[in-house]
Amino acid sequence: MTKHLKIFTDNRPRLFGIAYRMLSSRAEAEDIVQNTYLRWHALSDTEIRDIREPQAWLVTVCSRLCVDRLRLLKRERENYEGPWLPEPMIEVDEQTPELLAELSSDVSMAFLTLLERLGAEERAAFLLHQVFEVDYPDVAAMLDKTAAACRQLVHRAKERVQQDRPRFTVSREHHHWLLQRFTLAAQSGDLKELHALFADDAQMIGDGGGKIASVNRILRGADRIARLYHVIARNFAQRMQFVEAQINGEPGLLRFIDGKLDATFSIVSDGEKILDLYTIRNPEKLQAYQGIVAPSSNSF
After folding, report:
1. Backbone dihedral angles phi then psi of residue 105, each to the nearest 5 degrees
2. CB neighbours of 78 closer than 8 A, spacing ≥ 6?
C-alpha cells in the first residue's frame, strides 16, 4: 500500500461517518467516499506533499460533496411517497467496521430523522462541530463561510434538534426487554399486550417508499398501533420470524416473512413504554441486507 493510499484508508471510516450522518443513506455515503477518493487520487505527488493536514483536506472535500448532494436529495425526498426514513445500518454480529468507532454514536433512527429537518449547510456545520468536534474556524473553511456564520448555523441547529430529541436515557437492558415484549405480542397478536406496550401518544412511522404496503402517514396512538399489529399477526403469524439486531447502533428487530427480510424495527422509549416506532419496509433500503439468513426460530 502506498503512503497516499494509506492516508485515505486511515481516514475512510471518518469520511463514511460524516457522509452517512449527512445523507442518511449507506449507498449515498459510499458514493461520496468514493468520489472523495477519486479527487485525492487525482492529485500529484507534489500537490499531496503540499497539503499540511491531509485529514482536513479529505473532510473538506467530503463535506462539500455531501452538502451539494443533500440539496438534491432534499428535493427528491419531498416527492417521496409516504414518510421517509433513513436507510438503516444493520448489524447482526456487531462486527462491521463502519459501526465501530466513527459510527458508534449519534446514528440512531430517531436522531437521523431529526437531522432531516435541517438545511444542508446547517446539518453539515452541526455535525462537524457537535459530533466530530471540528473547531469553528475549520468548519468555516470547510463550508466556505465565516466562523460567525457557522456559529449561527450550529446554534440554530442545536435549538431545533434539542427541542425534539428524546429526553430519556434508557439502558440497553430495558431496550432489549421492550423489544422482547414487542416480539412476543406482535407474534401472537395479543391486542391487550400490544396496547400496554405503547404510550397513549405513541407514534409509528413506516417507510414503504410506495413500493410495498406500509402506513402512508404517521400512525398516532397506542390503540391504532396495537390494532395494526393485531391484524398483521392474524394474517402472517405462522409466516413471521423476528431476530434482534443492532440497527443504527441500537438494539432493534428484523422481521422475516417466509424466510425473507421484510422489515426493520427501531424504537424510542422511556424505559417502560414505546414512544416512537420506526419501521422500514422499502425493499430498496433493505436490499443490501437480503443475504441475512432468517433464524430457525425467533431469537427470543
Report:
1. -155, 165
2. none
Contact 64, 74 (CB under 8 A): no
pTM over 0.90: no
Q: pLDDT, tens digit, for every residue of 254-298? A: 999 999 999 999 999 998 999 999 999 999 999 989 888 776 655
**Cell numbers describing residue 208:** 414503504
Q: How far is CA 83 from CA 52, 80, 281, in A?
A: 44, 7, 11
Helix residue ranges, H only, 144-261: 147-164, 172-188, 191-197, 222-236
CA 191, CA 184: separation in Å to the nearest integer?
A: 11
Closest CA to 59 of 105, 122, 14, 121: 14
Cα diameter, the chain: 70
CA-to-CA separations, 287 to 14, 101, 198, 215, 282, in angstroms, rounded: 24, 25, 30, 20, 9
How far apart are the C-alpha atoms of 137 and 64, rounded to whole Å? 16
Number of Cβ within a 10 Å radius of residue 254: 24
Q: Dihedral, CA atoms, 43, 44, 45, 50, nearest 10 degrees? A: -70
CA 139 to chain centre: 23
d(CA 76, CA 98): 26
Q: Please state, in angstroms and rounded to a whole number, the distance separating the CA atoms of residues 241 and 287.
A: 18
pLDDT tens profile 176-196: 999 999 999 999 999 999 999
Distances (CA, A) of 256 to 102, 200, 218: 29, 28, 23
